[in-house]
Amino acid sequence: MYPVRLFTLTALLLTGGSAMATSFVGTTDAIGNSLAGTAEASSDATSSLRDDKVVLAARDDAASFVASLGAIRGAHLEAALLHIRRQQPDLQADDLQLARAILSR
After folding, report:
1. Are 92 and 38 in contact (CB under 8 A)?
2. Would you kindly state where each structural domain of the chain is located, as residue ranges?
3. Least enclosed by CB within 10 Å: which of 49, 51, 54, 61?
4. pTM of the shown model
């Protein structure tokens, strides 16, 4: 009777472990895909502004803004965000997404 219990316990452990791994993979895939979509949208939005002097001048401010999760807002970043939104009024990105896009250029 002991080998049957051991076999059953082993089967349960293996099944439970694979279910958790599948759930984890599904969750990380969903998060990764949503972040990739956000990055792609904000990157596309600023692709035409890569050589723009206003945007280039805002890189240091954008880095501070991203690192502080929006607490530090420099004048160059404010000017760049305003400039980007004037250039692309239909843009649906928040300030943090745009700051990350400025840094990723």
Report:
1. no
2. 2-104
3. 51
4. 0.55
DSSP code of residue 71: S
DSSP-assigned letters across all residues of 45-56: HHGGGTT-HHHH
40, two tokens:
């792609």
List pLDDT tens digits, range 84-93.
Answer: 999 999 999 9
Residue 94: DSSP 8-state: -
Nearest C-alpha neighbor of 50 from the set 87, 94, 21, 93: 87
Q: Are 95 and 70 in contact (CB under 8 A)?
A: yes
CB 58: neighbour CB atoms within 10 A?
26
Q: Positive or negative CA dihedral for 59, 63, 69, 72?
A: negative
Which residues fall within 8 angstroms of residue 45, CB to CB, at 6 or more apart?
A: 84, 88, 91, 93, 98, 101
What is the enclosing helix (H) or strand (E) of 80? helix 75-87
**Phi, psi (rounded to 5 degrees) for 95:** -60, -40
